[in-house]
Structure formats: C-alpha cells, structure tokens
Amino acid sequence: MVHASAYKDPHHVMLFFQEIDSLADNEQCLVDRNGYYADLKSNGKVVISGSFWNQDRNFVIVSVSDDNELVQIIENDPAIKQNVLELVKAMPF
In Å, how far from its chain's centre is CA 77? Predict the structure, then answer.
C-alpha cells in the first residue's frame, strides 16, 4: 500500500476508485460498502462521496488524522476487501 501523503496532522484525502468487478453484480458488497461509509460519515470521517456520471469510477473525500487512519479506512472498505473496486488515486489536500 502506497501512502497518499506523509502528513502527520489532520487532513483531507480524495480517494478515487475504479471497478474491477461490477458493483451491480455484487449487491451485498454494495450494501456493505454504503453502510461502511455511512458509519464513517456519521463519525465525521467522510466529507462527501459520489460517482462519476456514466463511468465505473467513484470517489470519497475523507478527513483523517494521519496516514495510518487513511490506510485503515481504505483497507476496511468492503469493496476493496472483496476485490470489486481498486484504489486508483489518493489526493491529499
């Protein structure tokens, strides 16, 4: 896993994901993933999330305290764990 940044202080990171396998064909994975990010949002960790129109990519902007927290969020994403999505880019800001 390549770290998005060397930040040690709180910061935001925009994560871009691309489908490896169709989310539409993995309904339970989609339900699990939506619940995962809803929980993170209720804890103030997700700023916004969405999809790019008519593409197999989506994004999530997270607020993290450091890169270790970022790695945990990514590694615990149900779609990453089940090889349905892959992280294609992480942009800290």
Answer: 6
Q: What is the DSSP string of 9-77?
A: S-EEEEEEEEESS-GGG-HHHHHHHHHHHHHHHHTT-EEEEEE-TTSSEEEEEEEESSHHHHHHHHHT-
- Residue 75, CB half-sphere, CA atoms under 13 Å: how many? 9
Query: pLDDT for 36-82, tens place per residue?
Result: 999 999 999 999 988 777 666 789 999 999 989 999 999 999 999 99
Its pTM stands at: 0.83
Domains of the chain: 11-92 (3.30.70.1060)
Residue 44 tokens, joined: 């103030």
- The pLDDT score that the predictor gives to residue 21 is 80
Six token digits for residue 73: 């969020």
Structure tokens at 48: 């916004």
- Answer for the pair 36, 17: CB distance below 8 angstroms, yes or no: no
